[in-house]
């Protein structure tokens, strides 16, 4: 039950129960006063905490704004640029949010703190003053009454009458004060309900306004957030593909470091210890130098460098080599030594020490050379000839007739043995015309697509050539979309005529495939992932080249999306203009502009591949599966082996003259970037079980006993097969679960 009302009539009675009700009202007001006092304290703490939070958020935003990611290579993809700019966007978002929080903190002071303080001071404080007066008058009234009642009846009538008048006046004053006090008590009891709650309501209104402003900011930020999630997923997918390539390259180099040395203008380079002679009492010292030698100019340079001294470079020394002599241990008390003599310092040899006997041998070979004994070797090379055009046209025709709507077209790989058998038939001019790919059920669509990709990968030089590889990559790294298209347009017309003709046939087909993406799920981005490494590859396999895989995909996307302009029209003769390769990524476009649809909406595809293998054959993992969760474009495709150049020796028609030492080194230790591309597409049984699924190029040795050529597969080819498998050498069932999502939510 609540407080009992205070009746004005009870003021005249001033009964004990009336006094109890007054004390109950007073206690309630005292409780209200304590509540408001505590609420004011908490409110001020809230304001202080809000200001501290705002300061911390601003500091956090400042840290985000000042940090910048560095990238590997000389350029970033658009996805990476947007990710770099995202920290600045986050900083701006927090800054805008904290501006609204500051407004909230000010509103708390004006709408909550000050009104409550005013109510407590003006209303509750006034009641306290009224209570003091009421208590004082009560004491005075009853003291005077007791004194009056103690007057003797023997006093004069005039004195008694004056005393009665005084008591009556005092009683009236007491009753008036009591009425006012009671009225004030009840007024405050009613007033506190809105005087206290209204400021709290205003506080919550300010709080709701703050949260609404935050909601509006978040709503405005949502489109940018969604686009950024796509950028992040694309970058993660590319990272997964790139990481596998980097690890593969690392393992290959770990197995044979010498085989995978980077190609540069130095014939030989590495660390050597150089003997520095001192005066007789001090003997000599050996100082580590980084040495470089160019055989063409015979210039030898060396720079002292000691890792333990903080890696400080010394002064470089350059001289022209006159000759190199091996030092035996009977002439010097150190192993792995040899002498060099400079042409400008005859008779003053410089003694150097290699790290090992093998290292010394490499240096000696680079500095001196050796003789060769020849054998004859016949090799079959792929080329862009009539047969090659026939293969591609037959495969494209079959795909467009039978499988243009197959899900995962060009991603699903065929069985290795079937692919090899099909290629062997197509490569033979006698059987090529007999192969019916459009109507025959013997050849699955995935077998046809794998054969076409394998043919393109096995060319001695990629379709878009080594020479123009770097030039194609440059526009993909920077510039506006229009400038990229113009640059690629210009470069395509610099390709050799046969390359351009083959590329036009292929790209026109890929554009047709992408137009059926709603059914086959092969968007332009997905086709870029598949054909980027197929049509383009660097001459040298390095980490930097692997980092450029994502840009190869972009170039293929540009070709597909703009094939009509690129192949049907001539490029501008005044193009290309220099493309800015700014290291610092540009800021991301404003979020508002993206909400207006300026950012191109691109389809997002998610692939979930599952292989079920037969137990009859060994498994060779397809190289074209991509990680689950790809967005704009899936993970970067593994680069195919960059076969180029011929082995050392003289090429005479179809015969290659090589010495036995070079042959052994070439067939087993040749770097991947310089292996020649040779395919006979024959399954040759091997005595080595590890090579049973080898299906790469085959050497043909003249066999005098039979008068025919004997096919022998090299160890290098089996090794390459293990690293770059074509397709699984077994029957496989590919279970495909594919989902597609679009940014606008329509697919």
TrEMBL record:
Q: Where is the Rho-GAP domain?
A: 382-567
In this chain the PH domain maps to: 265-372
Protein's recorded name: Rho GTPase-activating protein 10
Which GO-annotated molecular functions does the record name? GTPase activator activity
Query: Which segments show compositional bias classed as Basic and acidic residues?
Result: 616-626
Provide a GO biological process annotation: cytoskeleton organization
Supply the Pfam families for this chain. Answer: BAR_3, PH, RhoGAP
Checking PANTHER family in the record gives: OLIGOPHRENIN 1, RHO GTPASE-ACTIVATING PROTEIN 10
PROSITE patterns referenced in this protein's UniProt entry, alphabetically:
PH_DOMAIN, RHOGAP
**Domain of life (superkingdom):** Eukaryota
Gene name as annotated? Arhgap10
The subcellular localization recorded is: Cell membrane; Cytoplasm, Perinuclear region
A cellular component term from Gene Ontology for this protein is: perinuclear region of cytoplasm
Q: Which regions are flagged for Low complexity bias? A: 633-648
Annotated stretches, region: Disordered:
578-599, 615-651
């Amino acid at each position: 039950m609540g407080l009992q009302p205070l009746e004005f009539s009870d003021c005249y009675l001033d009964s004990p129960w009336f006094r109890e009700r007054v004390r109950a009202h007073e206690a309630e007001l005292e409780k209200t006063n304590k509540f408001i006092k505590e609420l004011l304290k908490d409110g001020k703490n809230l304001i202080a905490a809000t200001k501290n939070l705002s300061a911390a958020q601003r500091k956090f935003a400042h840290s985000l704004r000042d940090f910048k990611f560095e990238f590997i290579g000389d350029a970033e993809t658009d996805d990476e640029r947007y990710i770099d700019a995202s920290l600045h966007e986050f900083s701006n978002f927090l800054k805008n949010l904290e501006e609204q929080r500051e407004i909230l903190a000010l509103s708390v002071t004006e709408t909550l703190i000050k009104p409550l303080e005013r109510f407590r001071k003006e209303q509750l404080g006034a009641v306290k003053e009224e209570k003091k007066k009421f208590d004082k008058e009560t004491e005075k009234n009853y003291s005077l009454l007791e004194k009056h009642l103690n007057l003797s009846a023997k006093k004069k009538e005039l004195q008694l009458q004056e005393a009665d008048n005084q008591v009556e006046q005092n009683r009236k004053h007491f009753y008036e004060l009591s009425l006012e006090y009671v009225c004030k008590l009840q007024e405050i009891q009613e007033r506190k309900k809105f005087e206290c709650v209204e400021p709290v309501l205003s506080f919550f209104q300010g709080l709701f306004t703050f949260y609404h402003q935050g909601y509006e900011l978040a709503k405005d930020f949502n489109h940018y957030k969604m686009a950024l999630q796509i950028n992040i997923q694309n970058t993660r997918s590319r990272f997964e593909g790139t990481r596998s390539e980097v690890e593969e390259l690392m393992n290959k180099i770990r197995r044979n470091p010498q085989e995978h040395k980077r190609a540069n203008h130095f014939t030989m380079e590495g660390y050597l210890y150089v003997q520095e002679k001192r005066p007789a009492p001090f003997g000599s010292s050996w100082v580590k130098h980084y040495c470089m030698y160019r055989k063409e100019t015979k210039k030898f340079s060396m720079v002292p460098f000691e890792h333990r001294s903080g890696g400080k470079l010394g002064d470089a020394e350059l001289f022209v080599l006159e000759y190199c002599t091996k030092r035996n241990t009977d002439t010097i008390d150190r192993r792995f030594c040899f002498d060099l003599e400079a042409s400008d310092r005859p008779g003053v040899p410089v003694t150097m020490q290699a790290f090992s006997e093998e290292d010394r041998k490499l240096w000696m070979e680079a500095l001196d050379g050796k003789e060769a004994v020849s054998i004859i070797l016949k090799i079959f090379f792929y080329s862009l000839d009539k047969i090659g055009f026939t293969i591609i046209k037959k495969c494209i025709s079959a795909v467009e007739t039978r499988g243009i709507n197959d899900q995962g077209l060009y991603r699903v790989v065929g069985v290795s043995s079937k692919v090899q058998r099909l290629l062997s038939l197509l490569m033979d001019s006698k059987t090529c015309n007999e192969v019916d790919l459009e109507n025959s059920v013997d050849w699955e669509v995935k077998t046809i697509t794998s054969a076409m990709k394998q043919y393109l990968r096995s060319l001695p030089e990629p379709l878009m050539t080594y020479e123009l590889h770097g030039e194609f990559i440059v526009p993909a790294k920077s510039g506006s979309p229009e400038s990229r298209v113009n640059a690629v347009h210009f470069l395509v017309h610099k390709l050799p005529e046969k390359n351009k003709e083959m590329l036009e046939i292929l790209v026109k087909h890929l554009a047709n495939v992408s137009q059926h993406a709603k059914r086959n799920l092969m968007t332009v981005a997905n086709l870029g992932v598949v054909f980027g490494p197929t049509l383009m590859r660097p001459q040298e396999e390095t980490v930097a080249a692997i980092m450029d895989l994502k840009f190869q995909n972009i170039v293929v996307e540009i070709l597909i999306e703009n094939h009509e302009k690129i192949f049907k029209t001539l490029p501008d003769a005044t193009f290309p203009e220099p493309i800015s390769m700014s290291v610092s990524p540009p800021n991301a476009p404003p979020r508002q502009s993206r909400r207006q649809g300026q950012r191109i909406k691109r389809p997002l595809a998610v692939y979930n591949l599952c292989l079920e293998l037969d137990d009859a054959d060994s498994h060779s993992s397809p190289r074209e599966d991509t990680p689950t969760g790809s967005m704009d474009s899936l993970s970067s495709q593994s680069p195919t082996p960059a076969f180029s150049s011929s082995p050392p020796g003289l090429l005479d028609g179809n015969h290659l003259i090589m010495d036995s030492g070079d042959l052994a080194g070439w067939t087993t230790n040749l770097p991947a970037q310089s292996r020649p591309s040779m395919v006979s597409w024959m399954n040759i049984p091997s005595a080595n079980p590890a090579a049973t699924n080898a299906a790469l190029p085959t050497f043909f040795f003249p066999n005098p006993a039979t008068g025919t050529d004997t096919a022998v597969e090299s160890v290098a080819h089996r090794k390459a097969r293990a690293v770059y498998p074509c397709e699984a050498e077994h029957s496989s069932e590919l279970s495909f679960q594919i989902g597609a999502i679009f940014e606008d939510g329509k697919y």
